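Methods: example folding runs. The two proteins below were folded one after another, and each record is reproduced exactly as written to the output file, sequence line first and C-alpha cell line second.
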Amino acid sequence: MGRILEQLHEVIRQGGQTSSIAKLLGFRLTAIEAGAATVEIDIDERFWNPMGTLHGGILCDVADAAMGLGYAAALNDDESFTTVELKINYLRPFKAGHLRAISKTIHRGRTVGLMDCDVLDDRGKVIARCSSTCLTLRGEEAKGRSF
C-alpha cells in the first residue's frame, strides 16, 4: 500500500474529513482503495438553491472529492494530480437526507486518467452522474502538493 492510500485510511479512522472544504460542507470519506472512493454527506436546507432543492454545486463538490480521492489513492508516493475537466449530469432533484458519492477509475494511463462517480440517495437512486479527467503530475510539477 502506498503512502497516500495509508494516509487516506488514517483519515477514515479519524472521522473522514479530508480538507477544509470537507469540514465546511460536512462531507466525509467513508471508503477508499486505489482507484475508488466513497464520500458521504447529510443534506438539509442549508444547501438549498432558491428553488428549495439541493444546490448543484454541492453535488459537484462531493463528486469531485470522491473522484479526486480515488485517483489520489492510486498515485505513487512521488506523484500528485490535478483535475483538468469535470462534467456532471443532474438526474433528479434532491431536498434532504443522506447522499453517497461512489467513484471508480474508468481509465488510468501514465499521464491522464478518467474517473466516474454516481451520487446516490438512501434508496439507491442516482441523483447525479459525474466524470472527471485527471492529469498525473511528477517531478517539479508535483513538488509542494499534498497528493
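Second run, written to the same file directly after the first:
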Amino acid sequence: MNGSSESAVSDRNGAFLERIRRALAHDLRTPLGTIANYAAILEYHGDAKPADVRVFAGRIRQSAVRAAVMLQHMTDALVLSERQPSEATTDPAGLIRALISEMAVHARFPARGEEPPSRLPVDSDLLAFTWRAFLAVNAEAAGDSALDLDIEIGDTDDPITLDLWVGARPPETPARVGSTKFFESTVEVNQPESCFALALAEELIRLRGGEMGLWGRPGQASSLRVSFPARR
C-alpha cells in the first residue's frame, strides 16, 4: 500500500471514529437526558397523580429502549469496522427477503423490476446492516402500507453498485444526497434509531472505500444506492 492509499485509509478511519465519538457525546444524550429528567420529576414530586406517573414511566421506558437500540447499532458498527470484509458472495434477493421476514415488514418484492443476479462479491453483513436501517426508516414512515421493493444492479463491475428502490422510480436518474439531507424529509419518522443506524452505515461504507447515496421520501418513493470498489 503506497503513502497516498495509507493516508486515505487513515482519513476514513478517523472519520468513522469521529462519528462514533459524536454518537457517544451527543446522540445518546437525548434519550439519557430524557430518562434523567423524568426520573427527577418522579423523585422530587411526591404529589404527582397516578396518571402522570404512568406517563413519565412510559417515557422513561421508551427512552431506555431507544438508548439500548442505539448502543446496539454502535456495537454492530464497531464490529463491522474492525473485521475484514467477508470474501463470500452475496445473494441480494435472498438477503432482502431474509430482512423482510426478520423485521416483519409488509412488503412486495420484486414489485416492478426483475430478480437481481444471485451472487455478487460484496460483504453481506455490511449490506444487511445498511439495508436493515433503510427498510426500518421506510417501514415506520409507511405505517400500515406495504412497501414495493426492487433491487437494481449497476452495469459495471467496478464499482459494484446496488440500488434498493421503494415505490415507483422517477423517469430520470435522481440526484443522490447524503444521510443528513435525506433525514430532513423524515418528518413521518418518530423514532430516530433507524436514522442513526443509517448514518452509521454511511460511515462504514466510506470506511470500506465505497459510497452511499439516498433519494426521495421515506415510505413513499425513495431509494438507497451503495457502491463498493471491486475486490482486488
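Comment on the second run: The chain has two domains: 3-82, 92-228.
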